[in-house]
Amino acid sequence: MPNPKHKISKARRDSRRTHKKLQVPVYVLCPQCHEPKLPHRACLSCGTYKGREVIAVEEV
Question: One GO molecular-function annotation for this sequence (predicted)?
Answer without folding.
Answer: structural constituent of ribosome
